[in-house]
From TrEMBL:
GO terms for molecular function: integrin binding. Residues 3-76 form the Integrin alpha second immunoglobulin-like domain. This is ITA2B protein. GO terms for biological process: angiogenesis; cell adhesion mediated by integrin; cell-cell adhesion; cell-matrix adhesion; integrin-mediated signaling pathway. It is found in: Membrane. The keyword Glycoprotein applies. Keywords: Glycoprotein, Integrin, Membrane. It comes from Quiscalus mexicanus. SUPFAM superfamilies: Integrin domains. Residues 83-171 form the Integrin alpha third immunoglobulin-like domain.
Amino acid sequence: QGQEKLSCNPKKENGTHVVLCELGNPMKAGARITVDMELSVSGLEDMGDAITFHLQLRSKNSPSPSHASVTVTVPVEAEAEMELRGNSLPATMVLPTSWHGVQGSRRLEDHGIRVEHVYELHNKGPGTVSGVTLSLAVPHLLGEHVLLYLLELGTEGGMSCSQHPALNPAQV
């Protein structure tokens, strides 16, 4: 009939996390109650796609050793919003129409103007992420001609990269 807050106590039994809630003391025989519980569980990143709760109703006064139990499986959905930001330095570049690269040169300036592309991948949350793959296609050829000569690739923050095509093939 009325609503009451439950008194619940978390504890650990045999390596399992248990929450004990007292529903009524004393409770009349044949009483029917409805319980709505909200649980906050941390560390779900490695739990897979579901978490299972085992619920059991016990009575301190019951002479029966068997206690009714039910298993509830709740799907887990991780949520994280990723954002990719990118810049080119310089932002714009114009080569004169009379400019030509010097074949066989190992000087960087003989191959064009240096352009640095910087990309930042940010997790805006609320969850954490792992195993993220960012695929970045860079147009390095225009027909038979070199459009962008890929000199180097670097990362920060514990990321790893695999590159294709080969970087700095002329060893400039």
